[in-house]
Amino acid sequence: MVDLLQKAVPIFVLSLLIEWAAYYFLRDDHDGDSADPKKGYALRDTATSLSMGVGNLLINVVWKGVVVTIYAALYELTPLRLPPGAWWVWVLLFFLDDFAYYWFHRISHEVRLFWASHVVHHSSQHYNLSTALRQTWVPMTALPFWLPLALLGFEPWMILLAQSWNLLYQFFVHTERVGRLPRLIEYVFNTPSHHRAHHGSNDVYLDKNYAGILMLWDRLLGTFQPETERVRYGLVQNIHTHNPVGVAFHEFAALWRDVRHARGWRERLNYLLRPPGWKP
């Protein structure tokens, strides 16, 4: 199976260089304005994001083998079969994959055990295409959300392909160089404006805009928030480190400390399964 993300690495690198050049050579009226600053690129921050991306890529070389094995086992267990040659199967897969991504992304913000993995992606106080590559080194939390697709009769390679095109699309919404797009596009699709809001630590933006490709699920399920004020990127409590190991595992370490000092199993489960920031 062709891995779209591996094939897209040269496109990612070229896009990063173009965006960096746009900041360096084509500063607009707002760049550097203290009332509306665009941070652009910072060497240490970008190096950390690229390190996280390379680490994620290497870990997934092994992890995807495990994922394919599990998908294949479920596919063999189910009597259902969806023919890859039928056009409507791909349309169905597009919507189901995007729905699965919405719930994976939402749970990754609302359950601390999942957040410990996903927080990596939100740890940068900059917002550019390199931020899209700041990915977890613990990708196992994503597995449960796509298992139903294998049970519905989608072949494993089809599920992996759908996950790849969803993540490929999302790479390009991590930018400040694109403002709001035409209204219809903003209404239907995840856009740089919507995803900037998602990456905001402002109160108004917390736990909003979980979309992969379509904004449909956020609009239907009450988690949509347009970009209405200047976005403050990063975490509510930033970690102030560029060490990739610290970025990758800081929240797991904090979660372990809380669980270890908890008073009883109920409190331990609450630390694991309640939202980030929960205290007894």
TrEMBL record:
One cellular-component annotation, GO: membrane
Gene Ontology biological-process annotations: lipid biosynthetic process; membrane lipid metabolic process
Compartment list: Endomembrane system
Pfam families reported for this sequence: FA_hydroxylase
Transmembrane stretches, start-end: 6-26, 47-74, 86-104
Membrane topology qualifier: Multi-pass membrane protein
Keywords recorded for this protein, A-Z: Lipid metabolism, Membrane, Oxidoreductase, Transmembrane, Transmembrane helix
Major place of residence: membrane
Keyword Membrane carried by entry: yes
Protein name: Sterol desaturase family protein
